[in-house]
Batch of 2 targets.
Target 1
Amino acid sequence: MTIPTENVGSLPRPAKLQAAIADYDAGRISKSQLETEQDAACRDSIERMEATGSPIVSDGEQRASSFATYPLADTLAGTGLAPNLAADGQYFAIFADGHHRQLPRLTGGPFRYQTYAADYLRKSITMATTPMKQAVIAPSMLSLLYPLDSEITGYSREQFLSDLCDECEKDIRQAFEVGAKRVSVDFTEGRLACRNDPKNPWTGRHMLEQFIALNNRVLDRFTAEERTNIGIHTCPGGDCDSTHSADVDYADLLPSMFKMNAGYFLIQLASEKNKERVYRLIGEHSRDDADGVPQVCFIGVINPLDPTVETPEQVRDDLVLAAKHIPVERLGSTDDCGFSPFSIDTKPRHGSPDHARDIAFQKISSRVKGTAMAEEQLGVMAGAR
Ligand SMILES: [Zn+2]
């Protein structure tokens, strides 16, 4: 592949695994029984993603409670919650269909991850025959664990942010050490930070610039060579086939987002109403030189919230149009989001999580085929980059 293509990270957990998580929360099965189901789901995810011809795969995050809470708790119900956390934190997001997801609340220091993404990858990478990627959570998301307006006695906000940056750096470095070829940082809170939702107070605090600065505090600890393989994922959310910030104009986000010194970006686009306008914005604001690395822009060509499978021809046409605005040597393709960032997700528009898994692999297959067709049409020659 000379136009790179990569998934975001997650896949729906099979109905059997979601039932096992509920049984584990209720104390009906042991942790090792849960892990047996997680192992089976990871193996199935990797084998089926490899069968799509994708040059890089993930384990579908089948062991993670969610893309944001894996360092903090074993399940979304809060089983195995890390020390110094209480369950009643801020809403991370309120979705368009009315449901919400909540973060824990920090009650004291020091802040430490209980689980690193590498703890999961270490088990999964033995199941793969193609290179693997790993997604990690951004420090900006976890900064919302600290109370919005008050100080924690004995643990200042600045000390927390310093500990948080150390933990995020460790999360990324360990993923590479375990063997990840690429690591992408989930930054769904970026677009939500522009939303100003009165029901969700942090979104009205103009926090985007401080999120960018915080994430750069971590990125700046990596060399340019390392940052070539460190990405940022932006999206309007994707949970239970619903979004949280699709109404935010990309013009409010992209100029700031590309200030992050990452080597690549996984950008939701398939579900945008005016794709060409966003391609143009990406072309205008992405940089050839972000402190030593070119910013490769992977445009979303697959909508994981919609059960209709995109054709390879649609994928090809999106990339060919994007190449009018984004230099082809900095162009890639991706899915708009993970297929199920949260472990408990019935995938309502798909009918069931198991059917949604079947659809997801068909969609990934279309992305891989369509990207190869775009290469041919654009005349990108093997070995040209
Ligand atoms: Zn996403």
Note: The first strand starts at residue 5 and ends at 6.
Target 2
Amino acid sequence: MVTTGDVENVFLKAYDALERGSFDSEIFLDLVRADFSNERELKDYEELLNILIARTQNAISPWPPVKTDILKTTVKITDIAEIKPFREGEICYIPVSKNESTFIIGDLHGDRESFVKIMEKTQFLTKHADGTRIIALGDYIDRGLHGLNIIVGLVLLKLFFPEQILLLKGNHEVWEKTDSGKIIPTVSGDNEFIEGWEELFSPDTFANLKNFFDDMPAMVFTNNGGLLAHGGIPRPEGDNHDYSFIKSLADLNSPKIIKEVLWSDPEDKETVIITGDTRFSFAKKHFESYMQRIGGSFMIRGHEPVSQGSRYLFDNKLLTVFSTGGSGAYEGYAEMHPAFVLMDGNGEKYIFNV
Ligand SMILES: [Mn+2]
């Protein structure tokens, strides 16, 4: 644990590790656990954050590589013929092979304690072996107090293991820029990130963070018919369960649909009348109709606080995972039992409590 006076030392070590290009799990943990006893230390942390973001954004070959012409001629996930990972707009495609393990992390909401425990339990920090991947489902900031530390940790991981770390955006990672150039959140509530740091950080830092969030994809398809996203599925057309308006997978890249995917929740019913402007609930028939339309066989999503950290719905085809809870969490989530998921190369899912 970093204590007063050590922080500067940690930053020096972190810069040194960056220069050497070598990942050091002790430095990672010190940065994620760092507290600030004065303004100078905070400025150092801000500078480090900006350097890390700039380095990930200047990566010569972003991962997954960008394509532009696959999804518009594809109707179903399982019809994607590409054998390598790619990204098209907000959507990533990741073929999972038999010998690969994918850890899936739900909402962290500023809970650095759960984040550290998850990283330890996955053994990613010590082994970070080929064939091990982490996909995080968004909502890294707000609510809990240590979103900044989590962002620094995630950027560091993305920088050193670009092909093994995939960070999706949640609805809390959607920021807007006003006409006067000010960056504002689109979600309010306790311990909102910008409100908490705006007196202390430069406007450029928020601009850099916004770019970093904007670059995060919103959805992942896997070759076993998996669909991973923060919230859920788009609204159907009309009052029924009609998704025939989706003509190709490229249609899912529309800003309207992306917003719906970041905000919706499943409801344990056969069907519901969909209401609600931003956050809305969909039921089993909506889910089945949508998954049939796009050739999906299961979905893993976060967004919703579930007390045991995970919950299956809809004949076990939809899994919610929530990864914050306990003493390091936002007080509203303190009674929850955080979890994360391991998906093996056959698409089998295993749930771990943090
Ligand atoms: Mn959310």
Note: The chain has a mean pLDDT of 94.
